[in-house]
Design goal:
2 helices
């Protein structure tokens, strides 16, 4: 598909402090930080619930090493279940031990 045929996406809540919008923050770094913050919050919530919930998360593939550290911090392991290309990956996170430890 040619670039001009691809759709564009807009965020429901746009990032307005990024460089592409005239702000001081690097776009890619801001987005990656947001992704990892969301993963951290979601895994923290699942750990607090204490059930056998599995979380599937889609993220930039470049974030996989950081995501692994976040998962370990909360007692989860991740397995890449889908990687459409070099840019995106979907990971399934499951508790690796006692979810309340």
């Amino acid at each position: 598909m040619a670039d001009d045929e691809q759709g564009t996406y807009e965020l429901a809540m746009p990032f307005v402090t990024v460089a592409s919008r005239g702000g001081p923050h690097d776009d890619d770094a801001y987005v990656c930080g947001w992704e990892m913050g969301q993963l951290d919050a979601n895994l923290r919530m699942i750990k607090a619930v204490g059930s056998g919930i599995t979380l599937s998360a889609t993220m930039h593939a470049a974030n996989l090493p950081q995501a692994d550290l976040i998962a370990m911090r909360h007692g989860f392991t991740g397995s890449v279940i889908l990687s459409d290309d070099e840019q995106w990956a979907t990971v399934a996170y499951t508790a690796s031990g006692d979810p309340l430890a």
